[in-house]
Design brief:
Length: about 350
């Protein structure tokens, strides 16, 4: 009996277990009702009385050692299970950082949505263009002084391939490909050879509008633009049209809205005039219709073009144009709540 106890004691001391299940198997093997140590306790009754004291003591020591050893094994397995794994499934999830829409995209979408409600569909065109679509078809003859205001970046010379200076180039593309009725809105990026400052950049964004059908009049143009101004800047917004010049429209006008900061009272933003300029517009010049294959005796139309940066500045008072392209998240995050 004493030999058996000693043998088991040595065995118990060198026990190892790789998993909780293995440790439990050891407990069953030695300490359960039918376990090896328990059965020694059962056999204890047969031990002669004079040895009972010594054997009893050894047996108790063995049971204590086995219990302590197996508990130790279980405990250390439990600890390593919680620290050993990289994934803590009980931890609350890290918040997912949601990006925000760029302010120019917010405003572009708003402009497009407003015109979509009165039947305009989107048309797009390339940013790298030829001279004909940007200038020629739009009634800018070679050497015409109106070209001076739209110097750009040339990719190839003779024939000229260049970065478009306005989205009006999409006008010519649509008219060349489609007969009236035409009612399109053309958002996009445009380029100009400008010194970069807080109020000018070598690229910016425009939205062009074009409507061609039978009997389209200046009154239609004015009504569509008034609707746009009210939708964009509020119901009490007023508009005024000032005569202007663009090669591709005749007559041409510049449109102002009543200053949405001071409501026409006069403030530094509107230079105390109560008005701010937001777009150029006019009736499409018959020369442009003809150059694009549309019969100017049957059809007439209006066009307008606006800078998205300009409208965004009016809506959000962004003082420096360069911020739109700096990718500074401190600036961009401020538009989080805008849709
Ligand atoms: N393309 C002009 C510009 O970039 C803006 C413009 C003015 C577009 C009048 C038009 C228009 O369609 O009718 O300055």
């Amino acid at each position: 009996m004493i030999d058996k106890i000693n043998q088991l004691k040595a065995e118990v001391e060198s026990l190892t277990a790789a998993t909780q299940e293995k440790a439990e198997e050891l407990r069953i093997k030695y300490l359960s009702k039918k376990g090896e140590i328990t059965s020694l306790f059962n056999a204890f009754r047969e031990v002669p009385n004079d040895q009972k004291r010594q054997v009893g003591q050894l047996l108790n020591e063995l049971k204590e050692a086995a219990t302590a050893k197996i508990n130790d094994l279980k405990e250390s397995l439990e600890n390593s299970a919680s620290t050993g794994s990289e994934t803590d499934l009980t931890r609350s999830a890290d918040p997912i950082l949601l990006g925000t829409r760029h302010p120019l995209s917010i405003v572009k979408n708003e402009i497009v949505d407003i015109f979509a409600r009165i039947g305009f569909t989107i048309a797009e065109g390339p940013e790298v263009e030829d001279d004909w679509h940007v200038f020629g078809a739009l009634n800018f003859p070679p050497e015409h002084p109106a070209r001076d205001m739209q110097d750009t970046f040339f990719i190839e010379k003779d024939p000229d391939v260049l970065l478009r200076t306005h989205t009006s180039s999409v006008q010519s593309r649509v008219m060349l490909n489609q007969q009236p009725p035409i009612r399109v809105i053309c958002p996009g990026r445009v380029y100009r050879n400008e010194a970069i400052s807080y109020r000018a950049h070598c690229f910016f964004h425009q939205v062009e509008g074009l409507y061609i059908d039978k009997d389209v009049s200046f009154a239609d143009l004015k009504q569509a633009l008034l609707y746009f101004a009210k939708e964009m800047f509020g119901e009490d917004t007023k508009i005024r049209l000032r005569p202007s010049y663009f090669p591709f429209t005749e007559p041409s006008a510049e449109m102002d809205i009543s200053c949405n900061l001071c409501h026409g009272e006069g403030c530094p933003f509107c230079k105390y005039t109560g008005w701010v300029e937001i777009l150029g517009c006019g009736m499409v010049d018959p020369n442009v219709l003809e150059a694009c294959g549309i019969d100017s005796k049957v059809y007439s139309g209006y066009a307008f073009g606006m800078g998205i940066e300009r409208i965004t500045n009016l809506k959000y008072q962004v003082k420096d144009l360069r911020m739109f392209s700096e990718n500074d998240v401190r600036f961009l995050r401020q538009f989080e709540s805008a849709n």
